[in-house]
Design the sequence.
């Protein structure tokens, strides 16, 4: 079976091209919402090719981590587009090499729809550990849509998305948040009933 690492090593050279219609049709409009009201030292988990970078506010110091060196190499090229200071590290979100409370906040975009179900809680616990008490975690994720029509269209896309990205539309990240000891402050749809922005708080 192909691992997540192998998948992203394979798809990295094509990732931005394949994602282009979604990036410009959907994501660019919503990425800035992630950073509203955040400042200081921020973790971008699963930074990918660095698509969030143009939206990092100037006064942030961001550390982007990713499992795939090939995706990180693409992100490195995009670093110049960021107004913030950006450091990139090769790391697994379920085993972060940072001391507790290292960050003021963490963001992850389309990471949890890629992580297998049994990794969701361990990854959320790691984010909880490295973000300071009362800090924020923001997640932008695909969720299983309510409408039948969208579920049908997703069923058509699912085999390709699973093969290429290892992504699923059936992850229940919102439910795993409380299991990881985090508190949901806000959960709202930002693209139809497909993409959700979750704002979560670390207890403290
Ligand atoms: C769908 S891409 C999203 C990339 C980027 N956040 C974006 O918004 O375009 C998912 C990314 O998560 C990374 N990833 C998958 N599993 C990971 C893990 N366990 N730890 C860190 N990164 C991981 C992949 O290598 C890939 O770059």
Sequence:
């Amino acid at each position: 079976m192909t691992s997540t690492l192998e998948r992203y090593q394979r798809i990295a050279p094509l990732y931005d091209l394949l994602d282009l219609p979604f990036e410009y049709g959907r994501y660019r409009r919503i990425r800035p919402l992630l950073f509203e009201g955040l400042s200081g030292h921020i973790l971008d988990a699963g930074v990918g090719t660095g698509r969030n970078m143009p939206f990092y506010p100037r006064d942030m110091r961001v550390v982007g981590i990713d499992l795939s060196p090939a995706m990180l190499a693409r992100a490195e090229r995009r670093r110049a587009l960021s107004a913030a200071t950006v450091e990139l590290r090769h790391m697994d979100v379920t085993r972060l090499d940072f001391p507790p409370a290292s960050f003021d906040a963490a963001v992850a975009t389309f990471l949890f729809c890629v992580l297998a179900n049994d990794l969701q809680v361990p990854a959320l616990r790691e984010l909880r550990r490295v973000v300071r008490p009362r800090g924020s975690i923001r997640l932008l994720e695909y969720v299983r849509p309510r409408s039948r029509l969208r579920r049908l269209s997703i069923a058509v896309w699912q085999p390709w998305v699973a093969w290429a990205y290892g992504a699923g539309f059936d992850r229940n990240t919102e439910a795993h948040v409380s299991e990881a000891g985090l508190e949901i402050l806000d959960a709202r749809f930002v693209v139809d009933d497909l993409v959700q922005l979750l704002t979560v708080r670390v207890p403290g």
Q: What stands out?
A: The chain has a mean pLDDT of 94. The longest strand covers residues 131-142. The two ends are 41 Å apart (CA to CA).
